[in-house]
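Input (structure):
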């Protein structure tokens, strides 16, 4: 039995690792202080009070892309100077 592959089809992104989700949920449950940094360089510190994560597949012109959607609430989330 042989398998054929269409070499012209876009490569599918690998499934997202769930370690970030697990870390955020643990920080919420144990009330760890955290620092979140955005891609744009903004940095926030505080204690997470609620974390939700969902995974979705988005159809693009280049094919399907797996994404993670995060919902985060916190107490005392303060913006600090971003670090490079």
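Output (sequence):
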């Amino acid at each position: 039995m042989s398998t054929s592959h269409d070499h012209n089809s876009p490569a599918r992104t690998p499934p997202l690792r769930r370690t970030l989700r697990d870390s955020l949920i643990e920080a919420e449950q144990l009330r760890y202080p955290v620092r979140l940094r955005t891609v744009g360089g903004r940095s926030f510190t505080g204690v997470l009070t609620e974390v939700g994560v969902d995974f979705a597949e988005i159809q693009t012109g280049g094919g399907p892309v797996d994404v993670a959607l995060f919902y985060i609430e916190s107490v005392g989330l303060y913006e600090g100077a971003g670090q490079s």
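Notes: The beta strands are 33-37, 43-60, 63-80. Residues 19-80 form one domain.
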